[in-house]
Write a structure and sequence with these properties.
There is one protein chain. This protein is 41% helix and 18% strand. It contains ten helices and twelve strands. Helix 6 links the parallel strand 5 and strand 6. The termini are far apart.
Length: 362
């Protein structure tokens, strides 16, 4: 095995830091614009013109770097994210959420890595940045290197295989994301941090807990399960809040899961205001807590409790009607509820998810 060493290049290091800082801003704005690359670049240009970004920032160069890294691509209608760009967005969301947690200092937060105690599985997977070196399967890694021949044998990063860990528990999670109009009302953007949480959870589960599953359901006037790769492009609509439909969708998804543990994460900023009965008739009332809407919604919480599915609710608004409803839902389901400012939502959700995953749900 050979190593190559290079002289420390201060200029290149500074360029890298500048790119990372711009990328962090780019990913946040990209989440807010529903994955619209062109609009995101226009927003960044506007920030530069207003002096919020330094005048010497070269946004054209930054965009070219994104192209060269295969994170965005040019189309006849403009720039769009590639599959690699979508993965980068999820990683950025996870890093942003855990970055905010780490700034809180020492505490009892769980960390997003598998601990000791699991048995090595027969399967291996490609090495990913952050994996423990002790888990590298060097026999399979060298086998990969040997496929290129014996001449000048080198072990490269892409050759590395890591032993999977059989987790002591596995979990199926359904994330219910409110996309009603109130998520962007009154000058407060609640949907962007909520989407960041969804992206971070997807990345966490797919990279650290591959035997787990996560599904995302959007709910407004109705509930719709969306493919995970579409989450960056989610936007709110002129919708009311059909929490009952969301819970019903989650139950239907989890019924088909074979995981030992199942859970629902509900992120909302409003009380339920609409239901649809079995005949498809819509009943709506936006004033107060309508007994008909509330009772039908709470029936789903009770059914989930009987099926052993806890609901963890994150309220991102202090509406007294919402708090009253969530208190009753949590009581009947025997789940948990948190009130969180939008900027703190991620740390609450991920800490709670990681803690729950380390014990069997009851």
């Amino acid at each position: 095995m050979r190593y190559e060493y290079f002289e420390w290049d201060v200029t290149r290091w500074r360029d890298l830091l500048n790119h990372q800082q711009l990328a962090s801003l780019f990913h946040y704005i990209l989440t807010a614009t529903g994955g619209d690359v062109d609009e995101t670049m226009r927003v960044m240009e506007n920030l530069k013109q207003r002096g919020i970004l330094p005048g010497n920032v070269d946004l054209d160069r930054f965009r070219r770097q994104l192209e060269e890294n295969d994170e965005v691509q040019s189309t006849p209608t403009g720039f769009t994210l590639t599959g690699k760009g979508e993965r980068s967005l999820r990683r950025a969301a996870l890093e942003a959420v855990f970055g905010r947690m780490q700034k809180k200092g020492a505490g009892d937060h769980a960390v997003p890595r598998t601990g000791a105690g699991g048995a090595d599985a027969a399967e291996t997977r490609p090495y990913r940045y952050g994996d423990e070196i002790s888990r590298v399967d060097f026999r399979k890694s060298f086998q990969n290197a040997l496929k290129r021949g014996l001449d000048g044998l080198q072990l490269r990063e892409e050759d590395l295989e890591v032993a999977e860990t059989e987790h002591l528990t596995n979990s199926a999670t359904v994330l219910l994301l409110d996309v009603s109009h109130s998520m962007i009302l009154y000058g407060e953007d609640r949907i962007t941090p909520a989407k960041q949480v969804a992206l971070a959870l997807i990345e966490l589960i797919q990279t650290r807990y591959p035997k787990d599953s996560i599904d995302v359901v959007l709910f407004g006037n109705e509930a719709v399960r969306v493919p995970l790769r579409e989450v960056p492009y989610v936007q709110v609509g002129p919708f009311h809040t059909n929490t009952r439909a969301a819970l019903m969708a989650a139950r239907n998804i989890l019924r088909r899961k074979k995981h030992a543990n199942k859970q629902v994460i509900l992120i909302t900023d409003g009380k339920p205001t609409v239901i649809t009965d079995e005949e498809g008739v819509v009943y709506r009332n936006t004033f107060g807590l309508d007994p008909k809407i509330v009772s039908k919604t709470l029936d789903q919480a009770v059914a989930m409790r009987r099926e052993g599915i806890p609901i963890t609710t994150f309220m991102i608004a202090s509406d007294p009607y919402l708090q009253q409803f969530i208190h009753r839902l949590t009581e009947l389901n025997r789940g948990k509820a948190y009130f969180s400012e939008p900027g703190q939502l991620g740390q609450y959700v991920l800490v709670d998810f990681l803690r729950n995953r380390r014990r069997r749900f009851r």
